[in-house]
Specification:
With about 240 residues, the chain is mostly helical. It has eleven helices and five strands. It has two domains: about 110 residues, Zincin-like, CATH 3.30.2010; about 80 residues, no CATH class. The chain has a three-stranded mixed sheet with strand order 3-5-4. A two-stranded antiparallel sheet has the order 1-2.
């Protein structure tokens, strides 16, 4: 889920969420409502705009295209109508990965710009990729959650120089790492009833290993140009191995 401007997964068991609201579903009220018909949803401008921006991201954004290909190669093909849902959310969030349904929630009332949609989709696809390739215990192991949040903040473009300047945050040496750490902690606190000290400890204990896990990009994509190069490299991986 994204706590503006950070994202993290609600990743919750439905029954448990209703009982003690530990997993962030309070921020996604549409998750527990009966699905609306296409005709009813089509009447809402937010929903239409969300769907159009999502399609644009999936078709043109190099971050998203690489992740979609990596998920497919890992045996987790993503389908637009099955794995993405545009919904109304709490005012402080922009998106989330629902591990209970393997579905990405996009907050249609909070995502207003294409660049924002690009970042949210990329961030949540990284969670989906981690969910696909590893046995992530989203619900009980805060270190697992911390690792995926570190990777999402590091690889999604959340902490690019331009985004940080837009947030009026400036720094020199080590600023990217500081941004990744801070956003991972904020995301954990958004969806888990844990103390700030617990979140900080979890992030710090796994930071080095998870920050340096650059799959499937192979590099930190600091820009669209970096992401395009990473996508080309990813497409050529199998070609290289086939020639051995």
């Amino acid at each position: 889920m994204e706590r503006v401007p950070a994202e993290s997964p609600p990743a919750a068991d439905r029954k448990g969420a209703e009982e003690d609201d530990d997993f962030g579903y309070r921020l996604f009220p549409d998750r527990n409502k009966k699905p609306q018909s296409f005709l009813v949803r089509s009447l809402f401008t937010f929903h239409n705009k969300c769907q159009l921006m999502l399609r644009m991201t999936l078709e043109t954004n190099p971050y998203a295209r690489l992740l979609l290909e990596a998920l497919k190669q890992s045996g987790c093909t993503v389908f637009n109508d099955r794995h993405f849902s545009c919904e109304n959310c709490d005012g402080c969030v922009s998106g989330g990965f629902d591990a209970a349904t393997s579905q990405i929630v996009l907050c249609q009332n909070n995502i207003r710009q294409q660049s924002h949609m690009n970042r949210v989709v990329t961030h949540e696809l990284i969670h989906a990729f981690d969910h696909c390739r590893a046995h992530v215990d989203w619900f009980k192991n805060v270190k697992h959650l911390a690792c995926s949040e570190i990777r999402a903040a590091n690889l999604s473009g959340d902490c690019t120089l331009m985004n940080e300047i837009a947030r009026f945050k400036f720094g020199l040496k080590g600023h990217h790492q500081t941004c990744v750490r801070d956003r991972a902690i904020r995301s954990i606190l958004a969806v888990r009833k844990v103390s700030k000290e617990t979140a900080e400890k979890a992030v710090d204990e796994v930071f080095d290993a998870c920050f340096n896990d650059l799959e499937p990009f192979g590099r930190i994509p600091h820009s669209k140009a970096d992401a395009k190069r990473a996508y080309r490299d990813f497409q050529n991986r199998d070609r290289y191995h086939a020639n051995l």
